[in-house]
Structures are given as C-alpha cells and as structure tokens.
Write a structure and sequence with these properties.
Length: 381
C-alpha cells in the first residue's frame, strides 16, 4: 500500500515538472518577440533605396515667421446701402403684378398696379381745386376789366383777387397731398402705380393679384447685388483685427469661390445673447456668384509672428492620439512626439519636444505613417 502511494506521488511530481517546463518554454518564446516589438514600436524600417523611391526628403526644424490668420464664419447679405423696400403709400387692392422674385429691374420700371379709393379722392380734390382756381382767375380778369371801364366798384376786384388767392392755396395743398404719394398721372383716378426706386434684383415679394395691401408693409424688397456684404460675428478679442479698411479673403468652400474684400462697418455694440459684434465686409459681385444667404468663411490676415522652432505642417502626423514627427535614424526613422502651437497652414510652431536644428522627414512623410500602420497590423496578427 505504501509502495503504491509512492508511485502516485512520483507521477504527480513528474507531471508537474513537465507542465512547468512547457509553460516556461512557451512564455520564453512569446516574450522575445513581444519585447522586440515593444522595443521597435517607435521605429519605422526604411532603407536608403526605398527612401529615394518614395521621394521622402528631409528638412531642418528652425526659427521661421508665421503668417497666422484669423478665420471667422459668416454669411452673404445684400448691401443695405443699396437695398430698397417698396411700400404702397395708400391702401388699396392689387390689380396687376409685373415683377417676380429674382428678376432684375431698372429704376422707374413698373412693378405693380393698385386700385385705391383714397388716391381717387385726393385726385378728385385736386381736379376740383384746379377748376376753382381757373374760375377765380377768370373772375379776376373780368372784374378788373369792369373796374377799369368804371362799371364795377373796386371792392368787387378786391374780392375777386382774394378768392383767387384762396383758390391758389387750395390747389397747392391738394397738389402737395397728392405729390406725397408719388402718384403720377394715369388714365384712372384710382390707379396707383408702384415703380422700382433703384436698379436691382427683386429679393422679396409679398403681393398677389386681388390682395388688399396697406400703406405700412413692404411688398417688394430689391437690392443692387453688384456689391454684397459678408457679415461675420467677432468676439471682443478679435475686434481689434477688424478695423474699417482691413482686407479679408472671403471663401465659399461649397462652391470653391474666393474673393478679396474690405471691412466697411464694425458694430458698435455686442449682441445680448452672443456677446459678439457684427462686422461687414464689402465684396464685389459683378458676376452674381455671391448670393445672399451663402455661408462663407472670412480669413483675416495678421502681422507675421516669429516661431523659435517651426516645421512643415504636412510633416506632422497623429499617431495614437499624439502629434509626431519622423526623425531619420539608423535603418529608417523614429517617431518623435511633439507639442505644437500656432500655424499658418504651411508652417507649424513646435513648442516642445524638438530642438532647433533637428532634421525631420518632410515631403511624402505620410508614407512612413502608412508603413507604421502596416507594421501595427502585422504585430496585431
């Protein structure tokens, strides 16, 4: 019985030794590649021949001026200084509409015709006053003739002259009341014609045949779109860079448009909700491509700033959430994490992680990131 127990214990010990050796061998074989992978994780193998074929070139980090610009979102609006609202000066009912949205019109062009009882009354009053004036003038001429012939007394002449003066005043008042309406002479007493006050494009239209219109609502809005405004909202910190006369580049990414303009107005007060001020940038629009409502970006340049260490912007890549550069090393390149600062799109400031005078991969350095990605996939498998 004791001998049998000894055999069992020996078998268990032997089995433990075999398992221990197997585990040690397995862990030893896995650890070496893992250590190698960890050791070479920031290294990208790339021999000289591949570097030449890929067209990867080196540049040297160093001091450089940065043309830092400010980009503000905005929207195209009609030039308010060249915009007009057409409002009927008398209430009435629309009889004809001759202008449509988007139509280009000339100054004085007929837009709509309105029938107005108030206008008919004023015209009737004027015609009556003019008729009384004509009669009063004829009476003066007749009474003066009779007075010279000693047929009528001078008192009749004086009364005729007074009546003539009163008729003149009444006619002038009636004429002035009609002139205020801007109503010209037409075939009908009640016809009121709405005409374009400027050359421009019809942007809004709130009128239809048969509709009753008042004298307090704009039924047409038109603007000369030869120039438009790009309106941008700027914070108080940015207002100093948006003085009147400042040049700016307006871009419409959706249409691939770009044009130069200048700041013509800067709001004197901040919005209660946004705490921003509106700046308006005048833009030539002879081709009509800059339509009101188009979303744009306004790029405002700034004086160049000096960067102690700057590199090409296209040489900076993101690897595992870090901004990195690829530095030449034995047999390829190594990854150097850096902290970046200001940029003008072409050059980027490096504020930490790279001393001036350090060479780095510049042109076509994206191929190194792609190679690093392939290596990561291989290690993952």
């Amino acid at each position: 019985m004791k001998r049998h127990q000894l055999y069992v214990i020996a078998a268990i010990v032997a089995l433990g030794l075999v398992l221990g050796v197997a585990i040690w061998l397995t862990s030893g074989h896995d650890a070496a590649p893992e250590a190698a992978a960890t050791e070479n994780h920031d290294h990208v193998p790339f021999d000289a021949a591949r570097i030449r074929t890929a067209g990867i070139t080196l540049a040297t980090a160093g001091p450089a001026p940065l043309s830092v610009s400010m980009t503000l979102p905005g929207e195209i609006h009609a030039n308010a200084d060249r915009t007009a609202h057409v409002v009927p000066r008398v209430p009435g009912r629309v009889e004809r509409v001759l202008a449509d949205l988007g139509q280009r019109v000339r100054k004085g062009q007929l837009l709509a015709v309105v029938s107005s009882d108030e206008l008919a009354e004023r015209r009737s009053t004027l015609f009556a006053a003019q008729r009384r004036l004509d009669l009063a003038r004829e009476t003066v001429v007749r009474e003066e003739k009779l007075w010279r012939e000693r047929i009528s007394p001078e008192q009749d002449v004086l009364q005729a002259r007074a009546a003539h003066a009163e008729a003149q005043i009444a006619a002038r008042n009636a004429q002035a009341r009609l002139a205020v309406l801007g109503a010209g002479q037409t075939g009908r007493l009640d016809t009121y014609e709405l005409r374009a006050p400027i050359d421009g494009t019809v942007l809004q239209k709130h009128i239809a045949v048969g509709e009753a219109v008042g004298n307090d609502t704009a039924i047409f809005t038109m603007s000369d779109l030869a120039t438009v405004w790009a309106e941008v909202a700027a914070s108080p910190a940015d207002l100093n860079r948006l003085a009147v006369g400042t040049k700016a580049t307006i871009r419409a990414p959706a249409l691939g448009l770009s044009a130069e303009g200048a700041v013509v107005q800067v709001g004197a007060a901040l919005g209660e909700q946004t705490r921003q001020a509106t700046a308006r940038i005048a833009l030539s629009n002879t081709g009509g491509a800059w339509r009101p409502g188009l979303l744009v970006d306004a790029v405002v340049p700034a004086p160049p700033v000096a960067a102690a260490v700057a590199v090409r912007s296209d040489a900076i890549h993101t690897v595992e959430g870090r901004s990195v550069l690829f530095l030449p090393a034995q047999g390829g390149f190594t990854i150097r994490p850096v902290r970046t600062g200001r940029t003008d799109g072409k050059l980027t400031e490096v504020v930490a992680g790279l001393p001036a005078g350090t060479p780095y991969a510049a042109a076509n350095s994206w191929l190194l990131k792609a190679e690093l990605g392939k290596e990561g996939d291989e290690h993952g498998h």
